[in-house]
């Protein structure tokens, strides 16, 4: 099972660093380690509930008889029917109504509208009221399979040529990046070399346009070719360079 996490990060660039230096840093093992440390708390605290829990929600719906006492534990595989209750759904803050509208009574005894708790458990694996822990959708060891980092450019960068943007100094400035991390589950004793990592880096303008170092170099080469017959050297963007460095997430 693969997990994809999207986060926005900020950090202060080193002194005298250029934008091209920031992009190069996005392709280093140090950046992978930093991102793993950054997203690990998110993965542990915001894990969705397992599919088996989601499938059981329909069998936990109640619509009649007596409501069980809140806080009374029941088997996760068997939920006895119960009835209307005079309490609110803490997710939407609306009353749990009698009649045709179904609501769910969780094994911990707390009750919610079926659509509300279904949406909640797609993002979290605990009861909204008491933090009763359900089985998580993912657990075990994971390795970073791809890490795509997009540097968010400022408004003043839009009119500049791409090559000039690469050479812009951002030393000691706070730079922002949107990072998409894909993790793949791995065997407990698998070798790290079995899971190569792909590191990509690009730049995004405030209007959503994106480009890589290779595109900037190609644009500069084309411009120079039109004004001179001399040979020009370009820098290889290397945005898809594979890395063997792997980091596992439990």
TrEMBL record:
GO terms for biological process: protein ubiquitination; ubiquitin-dependent protein catabolic process. Residues 89-131 form the RING-type domain. GO terms for molecular function: ubiquitin protein ligase activity; zinc ion binding. This is RING-type E3 ubiquitin transferase. InterPro entries: Znf_RING, Znf_RING/FYVE/PHD. Residues 220-229 have a biased composition (Low complexity). It is an enzyme of class 2 (transferase). It catalyses: S-ubiquitinyl-[E2 ubiquitin-conjugating enzyme]-L-cysteine + [acceptor protein]-L-lysine = [E2 ubiquitin-conjugating enzyme]-L-cysteine + N(6)-ubiquitinyl-[acceptor protein]-L-lysine. Its EC number is 2.3.2.27. Its main location: membrane. GO terms for cellular component: membrane. It comes from Phytophthora infestans (Potato late blight agent). It is a multi-pass membrane protein. It comes from the Eukaryota. Residues 220-250 are annotated as: Disordered. Keywords: Membrane, Metal-binding, Transferase, Transmembrane, Transmembrane helix, Ubl conjugation pathway, Zinc, Zinc-finger. It is found in: Membrane. Pfam families: zf-RING_2.
